[in-house]
């Protein structure tokens, strides 16, 4: 169990917890740049979805239309980033729930390698409530 690895994972989880992520107002500023062509926002029952489209040139000079879609929860936390190039389907670029889950699983594995399960359980039970909501299995631990 590397203490430095554990500290790093805890720092990453803390950053994910307190940082909201890029906000729509920051993204709108990009519209003043020449290669950005449109944006759209819509409110949903769980938050908001903001999309911004820009033109991107490849090495041969051909341009593609790229749409980025940012999904936010009601607390204005960025929870999902998706990208669509030309007529292709949206693909996930970043998912807050997956990022949290990956780090918690790595932390749990590091702790379980050196500590008894009851201590691992005790440590994981201190996770923030929103992490518990993202990863239901933590409810069993807590």
Throw out a few tags for this protein.
142 residues; alpha+beta; 5-stranded antiparallel beta sheet; 6 helices; 5 strands; 40% helix; 30% strand
- Strand and helix order: HHEEEEEHHHH
| Total beta strands | 5
The strand order across the widest sheet is 1-2-3-4-5
Number of domains: 2
Tell me the β content. 25-35%
The residue-averaged pLDDT reads: 90
* Alpha-beta content class: alpha+beta
**What's the story with the biggest beta sheet?**
5 strands, antiparallel
Provide a count of the helices. Answer: 6
Short description:
By secondary structure, the protein is α+β, with helices and mostly antiparallel strands.
Walkthrough of the structure:
Strand 4 (78-85) and strand 5 (91-95) form a beta hairpin. This protein has two domains: 3-19 and 97-141, no CATH class; 24-95, no CATH class. The mean pLDDT is 90. With 142 residues, the protein is an alpha+beta fold. It contains six helices and five strands; from the N terminus they run ααβββββαααα. Helix 1 runs antiparallel to helix 3 (96-112). It has a five-stranded antiparallel beta sheet.
Question: In terms of topology, how is this protein built?
Answer:
Blueprint: H1 3-18, H2 24-28, E1 36-43, E2 47-57, E3 63-73, E4 78-85, E5 91-95, H3 96-112, H4 117-124, H5 129-134, H6 137-141
Antiparallel strand pairs: 1-2, 2-3, 3-4, 4-5
């Amino acid at each position: 169990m590397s203490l430095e690895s554990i500290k790093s994972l805890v720092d990453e989880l803390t950053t994910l917890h307190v940082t909201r992520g890029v906000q729509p107002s920051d993204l709108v500023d990009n519209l003043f740049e020449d290669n950005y062509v449109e944006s759209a926002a819509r409110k949903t029952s769980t938050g908001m979805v903001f999309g911004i489209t820009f033109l991107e040139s490849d090495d041969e000079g051909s341009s593609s239309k790229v749409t980025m879609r940012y999904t936010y929860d009601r607390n204005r936390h960025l929870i999902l980033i998706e990208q669509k190039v030309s007529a292709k389907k949206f693909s996930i670029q970043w998912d807050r729930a997956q990022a949290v889950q990956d780090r918690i699983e790595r932390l749990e594995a590091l702790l379980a390698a050196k500590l008894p399960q009851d201590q691992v359980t005790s440590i994981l039970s201190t996770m923030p409530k929103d992490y518990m909501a993202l990863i239901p299995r933590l409810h069993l631990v807590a």
